[in-house]
């Protein structure tokens, strides 16, 4: 890009802000660029969105270490798994139009051959469960990760059918899987008659004004795409075609992410029109299809959005890992602020540092959160103790995480893993949080098999009985169940 045009664009963006707002933005961007330099990141871009203000788009570094062209407002980046957010929007739009039903058994649209579900028909896989990662599916097998062919969704689903075997009862646990959005998007194709790419372009990219966004890369994308670098900082990773494009394929100019964030901040409206209803936005932010959600735990993964806490405040968004790129977007419905940030190197530490800076900015207008601990009956606490082992694993053949011992010591319920001990603070009922959190992030619940499960942002764990753990059983169910 012409350097003069670049400078004029930045000045125009900052001029749209009040003088009082411009300086904090400059300071914020300076901290992000310092993180870029410290982390050896070739280029970064950030989009700052505030309700009622023009978006601020800033960037730094070079798009290519070989020729060293400065990154500009025309540079495109891959956004990786943030694509799942768009896929979920598409599914909700089709559901509202009556083209598909996200709660209907998958087999109504695809027949019985697409996935193998030993729990059907009592516990079917649904599109909602696919989007919330609660369908009981693990992630792709190695061959699917390594494939670099731009397959249609129909061909991709036929490539390694063993990936689409349901491993545990659908509708119980959130376990992240790239299979879900691909299968859900195939239902979209079958029920609407449009390709996934056509539907997203017509119903999402165009209303949002995302002129640069592409799912299947074209010549313009390749010409404007920043080079993506491996963890070593100098090896370029060539463009890699993900096997299911609805999971991680979108490329775009960073500025084109602003309308998506603004749509969530405005509870479904953007560019003078309504894309989602307020109820649909709320549904996206709220898990509904898991055992944890049915027991009152509403943190975690909704329909293409994940929630987390920062300084006690609730944020929503999604991250994106692509070969050579890392990205993240987040927003607070309370502060009316949101952001998108992307780097062109596969190094997580600098992105985590940038995210911390941006989460600080998002929550800065909000008051400090204080919350008192709840109470738990000692007998109930003792009934929760025991030896818990991880029940779900993301990848086929992967080893489970270390077991967790739940203990009641000196009036405190806590978890112990190896040498790490953390308190479980009671909130209400069977909901708990950690001391540094203000909202529940863990729940104890009895499953349909009678076992006690401990579910949280640390994973899904089942309590072992006497025969499994070689210790005293605390019973098959929770008090009062």
CATH arch. level architecture of the largest domain: 3-Layer(aba) Sandwich
Please estimate the helix content. Answer: 25-40%
Shape: globular
- What percent strand? 15-25%
**What number of domains?**
3
- Give the C-alpha Rg: 23 Å
For the record, what is the CATH homologous superfamily label of the largest domain? DD-peptidase/beta-lactamase superfamily
Largest sheet: 9 strands, antiparallel
Extract low-pLDDT stretches.
Answer: 1-21, 469-477
Average pLDDT score? 91
Q: How many E-type strands?
A: 19
* SS summary, helix count: 17
Structural class: alpha+beta
Strand order of the largest sheet: 14-13-12-11-19-18-17-16-15
* CATH level 3 topology of the largest domain: Beta-lactamase
The N- and C-terminal alpha carbons lie at a distance of 65 Å
- The CATH first-level class of the largest domain comes to Alpha Beta
